[in-house]
Design goal:
Blueprint lengths: L8 H14 L1 H10 L5 H15 L7 H15 L2 H14 L3 H15 L1 H20 L9
Helix pairs in contact: 1-2, 1-3, 4-5, 4-6, 5-7, 6-7
């Protein structure tokens, strides 16, 4: 991605946080595949989501991870659910934590949404377990 000539402090903090949660490999792929069309979007999510919300000290990365997975599952954003399941290798959210979050999804957003998210989580956990590094920390 063609980063701003003078990235803001919020962008710099966002990039640090984004890399710590999603891993360098994932962020590098997203940055390298960005074009002039979507570079403003990449900058916006790095500043807004990662530099503002995920960087706040009030909640831990583990807590943010659980809430994010529950929200994404409730909204049916399957690819993002998978990405954030894999990010639990970096956030400290356990499989028990994710199970509890998805049980909340079942009660508050519906069984079909939770069912789909449980399937996604199981698939991602199987992939993570099969990786030589034992957790897919770079995805």
């Amino acid at each position: 991605m063609a980063e701003s000539r003078h990235p803001s402090e919020r962008y710099r903090q966002g990039m640090v946080t984004r890399r710590s949660v999603l891993g360098d490999a994932h962020v590098d792929r997203a940055s390298q595949s960005a074009t002039t069309f979507d570079a403003p979007f990449q900058e916006m999510i790095t500043e807004g989501a990662w530099g503002t919300v995920w960087s706040r000290p009030t909640w831990s990365k583990r807590e943010r991870s659980m809430v994010t997975i529950a929200l994404l599952a409730a909204l049916g954003h399957d690819e993002e659910v998978a990405m954030h399941i894999r990010a639990t290798a970096n956030t400290g959210a356990s499989r028990d934590d994710i199970c509890e979050a998805l049980l909340h999804v079942a009660v508050y957003a519906g069984v079909p949404a939770a069912n789909r998210a449980f399937k996604i989580a199981k698939t991602e956990f199987q992939k993570m377990d099969a990786e030589p590094s034992g957790g897919g920390r770079d995805d």
